[in-house]
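Exercise 7 asks you to align residues with tokens for two separate proteins.
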Amino acid sequence: MVCSVDHEGTGLLPSDNKLEIENRTQWHPAFCASMELELAENKKDLTYDREHNLSSEPLRIDLLIIKKNSDEVIRNEIGTFFLGHNIVEYKSPDDKVNIDTFYKVLSYACLYKSDTGAVDEILDTDITISLIREQKPEKLLGQLDKKYKVIQKGRGIYHIEGMLFPMQIVVTKQLDERLHIWLKALTRSMDLVQAEKLLESYDKLYDDEDRAKAKAVVNLVSDLNNGVFEQIISGGKSMSEALKEMILPELGELKIIIANKDAELEENRAELEENRAELEENRAELEENRAELAQKNMEIAELKRMLAEARGES
């Protein structure tokens, strides 16, 4: 992924942005997947455009969510204030969020509104902005509260009223885990209980498309919180085959090794049965020879007795 805004519109990225780009590359796909899972109840009512180009220059929105029917109500509390065009900017735990970040995201909405071709093709009354990150931006919210009106609409959801566009700041760390398991999963500080609930949520998904998105989330957070997931594995917690294959990438290789060992074992077992049959045959032949030898010994003894009688050696 490229950074949301390039350096002076040249398409060239300054060297001090390299770490940010790498971090966003790592977090961004999982975030987009998490948002789509968050809004899964309205899957048919929304379309998603990842890294939406704002202009011919490399200027991109992290996620653009378009509501197909303006009358449709989004059931997830993060999307209840959505209008027709919804700009979503995600900041990973490594990204800074300050007043300049705020105005940069605001500028995305302005550019999106203006760069549509026909005049007023997209109404400014039909655009919303969401800024999402893990930690609460205390300083930024304090600054905004002096100029606008900051209202907490729910755990971790802050609406900024009085702006050109409706805007909300979502703090994933504060969200209700029962309602937002996927967004809350985007963290480096996951505990054992949260990891187990995440895996349980994945296992309850039956839609292939949803499972693919959830896999992107689990793959990321299991790498970032590998100690917690190792505890689950080593603790012997019962897991489905799908979960095992996802969080244990070496399982496929292990299965091949086991299959080869099983084949080798079957081959050895067949050879053993063949040897056992041969041994039984040899044992039968030995018993036959032993009986024959006993009969010969009896015959020799009788001949000796008869010879002794003939000699008068009774």
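Second protein for Exercise 7:
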Amino acid sequence: MASEEASGGASHGYQGGRLNLPFVGICTFGKFPYQPDWNAIVADVAVMGAPFDFGTQWRSGARMGPRAIREASTLFSFGHAGAYDFEDDITYLPAETTRIVDIGDADIVHTDTLESHRRIEFGVRKILEAGALPVVLGGDHSINIPCINAFEGEEPIHVVQIDAHLDFVDERHGVRYGHGNPMRRAAEKPYVTGLSQIGIRNVSSTARDGYEDARRMGSDIQSVRHVRKLGIEGMLARIPEGRRYYLTIDIDAFDPSIAPGTGTPSHGGFLYYEVLELIDGLARRGSIVGIDLVEVAPDYDPTGSTGILAAQLLMNTIGRVLHHR
């Protein structure tokens, strides 16, 4: 007779099923179902890893970000009950209506940036073809380039970037597709109607002419201190209302006191609720149609706090996007 462990212990599990604690089982994102067949995606949200960090200029390691975020996300695998937020009096991600799948990772070809980017773009296109919301786990910020490329042929999008760095370098020593270039590449797209670049601060990787180019090409640039003076509602009021938003989050937007595990930490960053409230307001203001979260580098994250922050923010972001729809 099969043992209780082999059978899953269904007779003794939570609400008649397995208890499935965070440290048990396979680390898909949030322990949602794994769908390896990209031609059979049936979901409202599909999570894909982009374990690519060839675009980094200093500390590498973000290629391990998707694994770290997935493992941390098991802490927030809410089982059968969804995620009740008593402050909002809302149960986010209720089991009976939540359709989220993890489709695994885009296949990366070592040392080949353009081919790796093409494979990331292919994965995002398959998610869009399935009518699902793509949520991409980076990887360095260059993975945003293929993500935005995948929206060619879709309705126009407004890019909302939450980041410490402007990432608006056109070209540096011939490099056009590194993690300092993605917002410049996005602004060049005819289907990108504008950019809101939020959290930009301190000595930047982009020179003054890059800031001037960004504003000329349709960017609104606000620092952490600007946002705190404006307030969250004031910041939201600067973002065009009723648009389709692509949301790109660099974990270094957060202060390194809570997010040390990243390649280019920058002091003076956001705290958790500042960003969550901004995203919640964005989900109410229009339609979030794509998300990436990048630059988690677990080698510099000895306590795992950066991975947990990334996972918690994504779970709450997905919950609010689905709820406000």
